[in-house]
Amino acid sequence: MRSLPLPLALTARLTPVAVLACAGWAMSSGPAKTSADTSGANSSQQTAGQSASDAPSSSATSSTAVKTYAGAPAPCGSIPVATIKSLVPGAKTAGKEIPSTDTKLRRTCSWNALKGFDYRWLDVSFEIMDTDAAAAKEYKERVAEKSGGGAVPGLGDGGYSVVNLTTEDKQQTREGVVMAQVSNALVVVTYNGSDFENKKAPDTDEINKGAIKAAKAAVTALKGSR
After folding, report:
1. Tens digits of per-residue pLDDT, 133-173?
2. Residue 2 C-alpha from the chain's centroid
3. Does 69 reside within a domain?
4. Cβ contact 87:120 at 8 Å
5. Where does the pLDDT of residue 11 fall: very low under 50, low under 70, confident under 90, or very high at 90 and above?
6. Nearest to 225 by CA among 32, 75, 113
7. Do residues 196 and 4 lie in contact, with contact meaning Cβ atoms separated by under 8 Å?
8. Kind plus residue range of the DSSP H or E element containing 10
9. Is 40 part of any domain?
10. Region 123-133: what's the mean pLDDT?
11. Is 208:176 a contact under the CB 8 Å cutoff?
């Protein structure tokens, strides 16, 4: 039997994230105990007035951005075993987590297997941004980079799916990518497949539905990690 080339692994991009901190203080001063020292009372009142004006208002404090997700959940446990078996037949259901420079900010799990002549690969990534606005901006930029797809209703604050076909040495590979923004987090699912016997790729519908199914499970796992 001839040896079978496997598709190259996908390269995950790291999104740099800056961690912000905010602090507030408030000072107060009571009235003078006696009226004997009028100048002392006036000085205390002036100090109290200045402190009150310097302190942040309660409305400003309450408007501080809340970081919904402080860290990325365990990606290899985000997809049900039954889903892994159906999408990646023959793969070890435990998956393999890809090394990350900061596991609080980005975690990825990968499953892949060759069963007969059919090859399947699934990646699930969680990326944590500092704010919802930062996540929304990153989501829009990535959607713009992968034009030609369509929206996935009900998938977080925004969901998008795109499927592409590539051919190398007459071997076809069809890949689906689903992205979702959920508050300050991004969920990215990549699912692809090839048939090394007939050199054809799976149907677009199969890859697209598989990627969306995995993405929905990943979003559910993310929400449950709070």
Report:
1. 999 999 999 999 998 999 999 999 999 999 999 999 999 99
2. 40
3. no
4. yes
5. very low
6. 75
7. yes
8. none
9. no
10. 97
11. yes
Q: For the chain, what is the domain count?
A: 1
Sign of CA dihedral 81, 87, 93, 96: negative
- The reported pLDDT for the residue numbered 216 is 98
> What is the per-residue pLDDT across 185-209, written as a single tens digit (0 to 9) for each?
999 999 999 999 999 999 999 999 9
The encoded tokens of residue 41 equal: 């009372």
Cα–Cα distance measured from residue 176 to residue 148, given in angstroms and rounded to the nearest whole number: 12
Q: For residue 118, count other CB atoms closer than 10 A to its CB.
A: 15
pTM to 2 decimal places: 0.72
Q: Quickly list H helices, 33-170.
A: 38-54, 58-62, 81-87, 132-145
**Which residue, among 99, 104, 100, 108, has the nearest Cα to 19 in the 3D structure?**
104
Q: What letter does residue 8 receive in the DSSP assignment?
A: P
Cα separation, 71 vs 140, in Å, equals 21
Query: Token match 């990534």: residue?
Result: 125
Residue 204 domain flag: yes
What pLDDT, on a 0 to 100 scale, did the predictor assign at position 65?
62
Residue 206 sits in a domain whose CATH number is 2.60.120
Q: What is the DSSP letter of 159?
A: E
Q: Give the three-state DSSP class for 107.
A: strand
Give the domain range for residue 190: 75-224
In a domain, 51, yes or no: no
Residue whose structure tokens are 């051919």: 167
**Cα 139 to Cα 186: distance, rounded to the nearest angstrom:** 7
| Distance (Å, whole) CA 84 – CA 93 | 6
Q: What are phi and psi of 57, to 5 degrees?
A: -70, 160
